[in-house]
Amino acid sequence: MTPVPTFTLPVKPKSRPRISLSRENIFNIVIFSDLHCGEDESTFGPEQDRKPTKVMGKILDFEEPDFVVINSDLITGENTMIENSTQYVSQIVSPMVAKNYHWASTYGNHYTQYNLSREARFLEHSPKKVGGVTNYWLPVYRSDDSAAPAAILYFFDSQGGEKYQRWRFAKWIPNWVEASAVKWFRRERECIEKRRGVVPSLAFVHIPPTPLLQLQKKMFPRKGGKDGHFPGLNDDVPVADQGEGRWGHKDKEFVKALLETKWLNSVYSGHGHVKSWCGTWAGERDMEKTKKEPLLCLVKHTGYGGYGNWERGSRVVQLKFGEESDKDVKEMNVDTWVRLESGDVIQTVSLNETYGSNIYPADDVEGGYMIRIYFNE
């Protein structure tokens, strides 16, 4: 058995760039997802891999964000070798590097295969004895010299795939945020609350948590179902959740930990390529019951690898904070929309206490509340 290569952490926590609001109490995040580069090196692959880089560059020019998140599946590990996968990662992050944007990433189900080591490709690393690789958090400050964070961004590794160099005997990696990562999350959250009090937060995890599947079953009984309460593309039916298939729903502890997190506004996931809508926790429209639960958002397919022939794009999340002199200084308002490769903006919604009870007007696109089909060659 070939040993897994060892690496040193490329960016130590103390040397991370400080992330601050670059506009007047506003922080814009662009989320890219499911790029799936590296699917074929000998034929269509190189040209296909150049396309998501162009998409990312266009959207960054349109949005000029304060921060970028790549919510996993940068590469398709089944078709990528350990010796060349870093080349794909370098190509993928080049738009952020060229434009000097801070960025972060999660890992999902395409990073570990027989031919590819998960440990060899990490962009950030969990503490020792914490399952998965990309379990970490980043503070967002009001200014470069502020002491207390305005918000916390949590990142989780939903795992999946096959163990490196293992053909048999427990070769599969569980595709959920496992217990050790949940324990770490609770411990970190408690430490933050003791030092800074409760801080508003967002969470990013590639494979959606199970409550999103439960919502879809309740609200969208058929493929492509439409509902003005939850505008967006809904052509992945059913939503593939954590612990899907023969594993069952194994993210109960993770779901419980998310519910316990005070002022967690919303959770963002990719994984399915033909979906981009936000929902309430369990589909309830009685907001007295659900207003303290985080909302669940599906982002937009950015890459040309993998399945799906809808127009590519990105989910954008805008955080707005009150003035430091306000008594509600910790209040965080969240708006989100989808920016398409063409430059069009659709599905603009406010992720507030009434989301899920209001009906949004249809976008001026084919399919009413749903995003239009745009077949790219």
Percent of residues in β-strands: 15-25%
How many independent structural domains? 1
CATH class: Alpha Beta
What would you report as the Rg, rounded to the nearest angstrom?
Answer: 20 Å
List low-pLDDT spans. Answer: 1-14, 112-118, 284-290, 364-377
Tell how many strands the DSSP assignment holds: 14
Question: Main traits of this protein?
Answer:
alpha/beta, Metallo-depent_PP-like, 377 residues, disordered N terminus, Metallo-dependent phosphatase-like protein, Calcineurin-like_PHP, eight-stranded mixed sheet, hydrolase activity, acting on ester bonds, six-stranded mixed sheet, 6 helices, Purple Acid Phosphatase, chain A, domain 2, single chain
Structure summarized in a few sentences:
The chain has one domain: 4-Layer Sandwich (Purple Acid Phosphatase, chain A, domain 2).
Describe this structure in words.
This protein is α/β, with parallel strands linked by helices and 377 residues long. It has one domain: Metallo-dependent phosphatases (Purple Acid Phosphatase, chain A, domain 2). The chain is built from six helices and 14 strands. It has helices at residues 45-63, 85-99, 179-196, 210-219, 252-260, 287-290; strands spanning 19-20, 26-32, 67-70, 103-105, 136-141, 149-156, 201-205, 232-234, 264-269, 275-279, 295-298, 313-321, 332-340, 345-350. It has an eight-stranded mixed beta sheet with strand order 1-5-6-7-9-11-10-8. A hairpin with a 4-residue loop joins strand 13 (332-340) and strand 14 (345-350). Helix 1 (45-63) packs parallel to helix 2. The longest helix is centred in the N-terminal third of the chain and has 19 residues, at 45-63. Residues 1-14, 112-118, 284-290 and 364-377 have low confidence and may be disordered. It comes from Calycina marina. Residues 28-243 form the Calcineurin-like phosphoesterase domain. One of its GO terms (cellular component) is cytoplasm. This is Metallo-dependent phosphatase-like protein.
